[in-house]
Write a structure and sequence with these properties.
The chain has about 70 residues and is α+β, with helices and mostly antiparallel strands. It contains 3 helices and 3 strands, in the order E-H-H-E-E-H.
């Protein structure tokens, strides 16, 4: 498989750095129905570790920016 076709997975620490929130807040966004409207990307479990798609996190951030910039 070519490197360019492989999806980049990132750790929870990297997700925290990208979205500037705590690990607890990420858990809330994923699991609490109160935050379901945010549509935060779901994690992947590989063995005992968890990862997120870098592309999905980037797209989610872009979507949040677009919502901010859209007049109500």
């Amino acid at each position: 498989m070519e490197q360019s076709s492989m999806e980049k997975l990132i750790s929870k620490k990297q997700v925290r750095e990208l979205v500037s929130v705590s690990a607890t807040q990420i858990d809330r966004w994923e699991n609490d129905k109160e935050y379901a409207h945010l549509g935060f990307p779901r994690r992947y479990r590989i063995g005992e570790r968890v990862f997120w798609s870098f592309e999905e996190i980037q797209n989610w951030i872009a979507c949040q920016k677009a919502k901010r910039d859209t007049p109500k």
